[in-house]
Amino acid sequence: MTSRENQEAIAGLTTSRIQALSDGVFAIVFTLMVFQIRLPDLSASRPPAELARHLRALWPEFLSYALSFIIAGVFWVGHHNIFHYVRRTDRLFLWLNLGFLMFIAFVPFSTALLGRYSQEQVAVVVYGVHLIIIGMLLYLVWSYATRRHRLVDPQIDPDFVHFVKGRILLSPAACVVAIGASFVNVRWSLLLYLLVLAFYIVPGRIDRLWSRR
Amino acid sequence: MTSRENQEAIAGLTTSRIQALSDGVFAIVFTLMVFQIRLPDLSASRPPAELARHLRALWPEFLSYALSFIIAGVFWVGHHNIFHYVRRTDRLFLWLNLGFLMFIAFVPFSTALLGRYSQEQVAVVVYGVHLIIIGMLLYLVWSYATRRHRLVDPQIDPDFVHFVKGRILLSPAACVVAIGASFVNVRWSLLLYLLVLAFYIVPGRIDRLWSRR
Amino acid sequence: MTSRENQEAIAGLTTSRIQALSDGVFAIVFTLMVFQIRLPDLSASRPPAELARHLRALWPEFLSYALSFIIAGVFWVGHHNIFHYVRRTDRLFLWLNLGFLMFIAFVPFSTALLGRYSQEQVAVVVYGVHLIIIGMLLYLVWSYATRRHRLVDPQIDPDFVHFVKGRILLSPAACVVAIGASFVNVRWSLLLYLLVLAFYIVPGRIDRLWSRR
Amino acid sequence: MTSRENQEAIAGLTTSRIQALSDGVFAIVFTLMVFQIRLPDLSASRPPAELARHLRALWPEFLSYALSFIIAGVFWVGHHNIFHYVRRTDRLFLWLNLGFLMFIAFVPFSTALLGRYSQEQVAVVVYGVHLIIIGMLLYLVWSYATRRHRLVDPQIDPDFVHFVKGRILLSPAACVVAIGASFVNVRWSLLLYLLVLAFYIVPGRIDRLWSRR
Questions:
Q1: What residues have CB less than 8 Å from A88, skipping those under 6 apart?
Q2: Residue B8's pLDDT is what?
Q3: Interface predicted TM-score (ipTM) of this complex, two decimals
Q4: A133–chain D Cβ distance below 8 A for any pair
């Protein structure tokens, strides 16, 4: 095996498996919540309108599912974008990524908590701390990979590396503000959480950089 | 990295991950429903014929499973065919696909609803609306990718793009008719739903185009 | 894109997704059964020996899990071997494979049924019929793919195609005999099921053919 | 098909599917445990502090989840490293790997058992035996693949093969000691289990060998 082939084998095989594992974890997070929404179980002898009423009563669960889906989606897209630039891996990087996945698996839990107890500061704070942890782990994944081009292409643009860092850190920063706001009024915190989601979904400067490549 | 290699990296990595995520979601949808069918739990001191009777009583659950499987299968095959032509991706495309997956994850729910309450208009309408949403999202995925060859090969045949659009839209169109029919007689709606499934499974002109390539 | 590259793209992309979906379904079948084995929930004030006793009482569930795992494993290895030779795909082939996966997802159900009611003919027959269906679907997958080299390499050895067919059909044939035997004594049926498993696990002539390539 | 292409097809296809299956199993093990942590279900008319109290009461479940995650993570990283060198496969190798996965799927069970009954020798012994089985299966996977270069590159360094063997065997060896220690004091066993985890996570000589390649 030539040195070139060898390196390709290392780069290809290794990041492909982290990505496969990550996509598996995300796919389960995306799908499994639905299976916890129970079908209404009604007797045959009630008025037909009752079924419609029972389905409407499931509304908060549908909403909580949609929200979890979008939050997990934001991080899946972010993870996807980061791994687009990663060429190699090492033990610490595998573990940083596993830590990230460990907290991603908790997204349905803390989103459901927020959905069920949105008026209470405890739920708002738990949710914010959770998002801060996920954001910081994603930041660690990216900065560990890019530091002195450890696991990325040597030609990667340093400005781009910096720009992505700022973009990732925005979510934890907003969550710190939202946690602070929760001591005044939890509604302001909820509004901030929604703004963060919108920021990551709407295409921005990073996508123009992306499509220019 | 040459420009050619760069482009390959983008095309390869990126669509491979959307596909991996999608296949993961579909695999869970395909499999998890079975785990909700409970084994009959009978005491040792009853007549042997009772086990057979209990298994026969599970019949509606088996049927609902088979139906969900076929519906999810139709959309998996459709998704598969579409992604055969997609070469690149961007943020909006990732989100359109995530939206599609979000509603695919609900297929077992609304199919079970239809199986359990097939005589009631509410269930028939919910099921139809669900299929319309999935169909429209798949349509958006395809038309976003193909518009001005945004994410597909420039040499793709415009007639083929058009033909696939019509094929995708047939399901939502039939569901609109089925919802209308439900105001007269829900049996007509059910018949229409079955016809739509049959249409997508039986090989047609698209498969001849396919095998000619 | 040259014609050669184009064909590679079709072959690569397409069978890779069936395989990804199949591996996802198998992974869930392999793993999910464990989550249905409940941890014993004992109070702190009982004698320590009681925990050991409760764990021993879980023995039939562990055995049923191991059996399901091995049966699903046999079919995963078979599916793996078959897809090693498949180069292309078409709509009917996708559906044959989906049908196969649909019944694979039921392996934990009918194995648990057999484990729980191994003395009753109904369970023995249901299990046998289930294995016959899976075997016939795998046979259809292989014969559809190889007929006039439809989806396989033109250079494939016809003797090999034939040999694999016989190997696949052995399981359904043995199950027919086992179902017949159940009318006399269900123990003979159980013995036959175990022999079939052993036959597929022990390396045989096919593996010598395999390693010679 | 030239001989070179043929070999690539065998190497690529085959180990890619074992890896896909393994990653699927690991992804489910990593994620599914979270879904068993129930959200506290409290009435609206209780003091707000009660929610915080209920969340704190979930602490042992979070800890057990984190521990399962780390243990499964250690074996995923190990499996990942081993498969980096595997080029081919055969029937027995597939089954060794399936056996390994079968016991990986049990990690959440025996970790939860240890978390719930950490003061009792039965739980400590079951956990240790489980880790010994997993370690021995991983050892078999590696030594079967490397014996006379059966499934690996012929140029692989024999010292490296040996070194990895020792590294894998350390966990079962420590578990044997831990089981012995449990007859004196179960706390010593727990301490040993933690040391083993730390040993595998902290980068060591193997990672220097790795990065030198």
A1: A10, A11, A14, A15, A150, A151
A2: 38
A3: 0.84
A4: no
Show the DSSP H helices in D46-120 as ranges: 49-57, 59-83, 91-104, 107-116
Q: How many domains does chain A have?
A: 1
CB of D37 within 8 Å of any CB in chain C?
no
Listing DSSP states for A98-134 in one string gives HHHHHHHTTHHHHHHHHHHTTTSHHHHHHHHHHHHHH
Taking the Cβ of residue D6 and every Cβ of chain C, the question of whether any pair is shorter than 8 Å is answered with yes
- Give the residue on B whose Cα is nearest the Cα of A200: B91
User: Residue B169's Cα: distance from chain center in Å?
Assistant: 13
Spatial neighbors of B31 by CB under 8 A, at least 6 apart, are C24, C25, C28, C29, C32, C105
End-to-end CA distance of chain D: 32
Q: Which of B17, B38, B43, B80 to mutate to test the interface with C (most CBs of C within 10 A)?
A: B80
**Among candidates C27, C52, C77 on the partner chain, residue whose Cβ is nearest the Cβ of D28:** C27
Closest chain B residue to D21, measured at CA: B24
Say if C200 is an interface residue toward chain D (CB within 8 Å). Answer: no
Q: Which residues of D touch A122 (CB under 8 A)?
A: 48, 51-52, 55
Compute the distance between CA of residue B160 and CA of residue B163 in angstroms, rounded to an integer.
5
Cβ separation B76–C21 shorter than 8 A: yes
Taking the CA of residue A68 and the nearest CA in chain C, the distance in Å comes to 22
For chain B, say whether A85 makes contact (Cβ under 8 Å): no
CB pairs under 8 A between C and D: 90
Q: Give whole-number Cα distances, B73 to B111, C70, D41, in Å.
A: 13, 26, 37
User: How many beta-carbon pairs below 8 A join chains A and B?
Assistant: 90
Q: In this complex, is the C-beta atom of D84 within 8 Å of any C-beta atom belonging to chain A?
A: yes
**Band (B2; pLDDT cuts 50, 70, 90):** very low
Q: What is the distance of C-alpha A133 from the center of its chain? A: 11
Q: What is the pTM of this model?
A: 0.88
Terminus-to-terminus CA distance in chain A, angstroms? Answer: 32
**Number of residues written out for chain B:** 213
Q: For D20-59, write each residue's pLDDT tens digit.
A: 999 999 999 998 888 778 888 887 777 878 899 999 988 8
Q: Is the minimum CB–CB distance between D12 and chain C shorter than 8 Å?
A: no
CA dihedral B16, B21, B23, B27 (to 10 degrees): 160
Q: Note the pLDDT tens digit of each residue in A152-183.
A: 988 888 988 999 999 999 999 999 999 999 99
Residue C87's pLDDT band, with cuts at 50, 70 and 90, is: confident
Residues of B in contact with A52 (CB under 8 A): 122
Range of the domain at D180: 3-212
**Who contacts A187 (Cβ-Cβ below 8 Å, separation ≥6)?**
none
Tokens of A97: 């990524």
Residue with tokens 């249901």: C126
Q: Give dist(CA B108, CA C201) in Å, integer.
A: 35
Summarised one tens digit per residue, pLDDT across range B83-117 is: 988 988 888 899 999 999 999 999 989 988 988 88
CA A26, CA A69: separation in Å to the nearest integer? Answer: 10
Contact B75, C21 (CB under 8 A): no
Residues of C in contact with A24 (CB under 8 A): 24, 27
Minimal-distance CA residue of chain B relative to A73 = B98
Q: Per-residue pLDDT tens for C166-203?
A: 999 999 999 999 999 999 999 999 999 999 888 888 76
Report chain B residues whose CB lies below 8 A from the CB of D27.
24
